[in-house]
Specification:
The structure is a single chain. By secondary structure, the chain is of the alpha/beta class. It has one domain: TIM Barrel (Alpha-Beta Barrel), CATH 3.20.20.80. 40% of the residues lie in helices and 15% in strands. The protein has 15 helices and 16 strands. The strands form four sheets. A nine-stranded parallel beta sheet has the order 4-3-2-13-12-9-7-6-5. A hairpin with a 5-residue loop joins strand 14 (417-420) and strand 15 (426-429). Helix 3 (56-69) runs parallel beside helix 5 and helix 14 runs parallel beside helix 15. The radius of gyration is 21 Å and the shape is globular. The two termini are 21 Å apart. The structure holds 5-hydroxymethyl-3,4-dihydroxypiperidine. 5-hydroxymethyl-3,4-dihydroxypiperidine binds at residues 16, 19, 165, 292, 351, 398, 405, 414.
Length: 455
């Protein structure tokens, strides 16, 4: 059968500032929490840092040309707060804005739609020193920064994402301590969660006030469909709680104006006193929800689990990437569930992709057939969800190019373009990029049949 997407469906590729830019101390950029974290021994595999990364800061023209040659209509990138306001608040750095002027103008000249994110985790270190996301002030500072960036760019840019994956910031950054800033404290994570929501709401209002034309604004959440490992009551309860932790702690306040009760009762989160008063701000209307999805989560009760009494299982049946289970059914189930449970008019898949071992063959080709299979399966699952009424308006592959995969450094490659770290960071088009390019050209592809089971 032929899969064809609705007219106007937006295809894109995504990246993030710290993961590709490099130029870490150039033209006035201040250190971010990720500079500090990655330079602290033991935090990142092989001691890798984003100092140089893919050197996009200097090679953005070449990268724009790549996107254009591949016929990719939209590009999701993130602004680096420490480049634009090195002190976190106050003085704007004209050279920081100028870099993104060059990038945005270059994209527009190439006919590529910019789809930026304001915050993809590179908090200015100076703000972390003052409490980071555990401090209510940071929410306001983020909104101030958002207003400044929107004032400058909204004559040319209409689609905006406030925050990328607040779950990662609060849970990996402040609860589990495996991402910057490396804190392990449930109260800190609770406060960070609330202040990220608040920062998003304040930012949306600041952005609308600063906008030079009507904007489409959304937030991007990393969501996973959650299943219990068995029908036992304990496993069912574990799955219920994990769904709250992973998904509802973010979806419910933003889209329904409530925190799930169990977050406090069963998981031990403690939100700042008087948090209820922030709910109207947090639920400030947006235009779309961004979703990053890579896998599903299958969990079982586990008395010794940390930070909660459950653990993740590795189900059999699907294959695995270097990171996670490849589970396209999980994307289908997630999308159908979102439509059922939340008032959503527009969804963008703002990230989906996979890290599989790949390398350059003697003929200079990267034959990443497993990545192609993964993308095809997930895109087909998304198509099936659209056929069933889920309003998915666009899809961004993660990632345009191999990059700094946070605490795993450069050991994992998510790109559809290969970065040759050994040879002057040469860009090499992988087979998956050619496949994606063809998919965009045809606005779909052929498959034997859908494989997702009805939800
Ligand atoms: O590389 C990350 C990205 O920064 C956020 N979403 C998940 C990707 C893969 O882990």
């Amino acid at each position: 059968m032929e899969i064809r997407f609705p007219p106007g469906f937006l295809w894109g590729a995504a990246t993030a500032s710290y993961q590709i830019e490099g130029g870490w101390n150039e033209e006035g950029r201040s250190p971010s929490v990720w500079d500090t974290f990655s330079k602290t021994p033991g935090n990142v595999l092989h001691g890798d840092t984003g100092d140089v990364a893919a050197d996009h800061y200097h090679r953005y023209k070449e990268d724009i040309a790549l996107i254009k040659d591949l016929g990719i209509p939209a590009y999701r990138f993130s602004f680096a707060w420490p480049r634009i306001i090195p002190g976190g608040i106050g003085q704007v750095n004209p050279k920081g804005l100028a870099f993104y002027d060059r990038l945005v103008d270059g994209l527009l000249e190439a006919g590529i739609q910019p789809f930026p994110t304001l915050y993809h985790w590179d908090l200015p270190q100076v703000l972390e020193d003052a409490g980071g996301w555990t401090s209510r002030q940071t929410a306001q500072y983020f909104a101030d920064y958002a207003g400044i960036v929107v004032e400058h760019f909204s004559d040319r840019v209409t689609n905006w994402i406030t925050i990328n994956e607040p779950w990662v910031v609060s849970m990996l950054g402040y609860l589990m301590g495996v991402f910057a800033p490396g804190v392990k404290d449930l109260k800190a994570a609770s406060y960070a969660t609330h202040h990220l929501h608040l920062g998003h709401g304040l930012a949306v209002q600041a952005m609308r006030a600063a906008a030079r034309q009507p904007l489409q604004i959304g937030v991007t959440l990393n969501l996973s469909f959650v299943e219990a490992a068995s029908k036992s009551a304990d496993d069912q309860k574990a799955a219920y709680l994990h769904d709250i932790f992973q998904n509802r702690l973010f979806l419910d306040p933003l889209l329904k104006g409530t925190y799930p009760q169990e977050a406090e009762k069963d998981l031990g989160f403690t939100f700042p006193a008087g948090y209820e008063k922030d709910i109207p701000m947090i639920t400030t209307p947006t235009d779309f929800l961004g979703i990053n999805n890579y896998s599903r989560n299958v969990v079982k009760y586990d008395a010794s689990g940390w930070p909660f009494h459950y653990s993740h299982t590795n189900p059999t049946g699907n294959s695995y990437s270097e990171m996670w289970e490849m589970a396209p059914q999980g994307l289908y189930d997630l999308l159908i569930r979102l439509k059922r449970d939340y008032p959503l008019n527009a969804i963008y898949i703002t990230e989906n992709g996979t890290a599989v071992p790949d390398g350059v063959d003697a003929d200079n080709r990267v034959r990443d057939s497993r990545r192609i299979q993964y993308l095809q399966d997930y895109i087909a699952a998304m198509h099936q969800a659209i056929q069933n009424g889920v309003p998915v308006k666009g899809y961004f592959v993660w990632s345009l190019m191999d990059n700094f995969e946070w605490n795993l450094g450069y050991s994992r490659r998510f790109g559809i373009v290969y970065i040759d770290y050994e040879n002057d960071l040469k860009r090499i088009i992988k087979d998956s990029a050619r496949w994606f390019s063809q998919t965009i050209k045809e606005n779909g592809f052929k498959i034997k049949s859908y494989y997702a089971e009805p939800f």
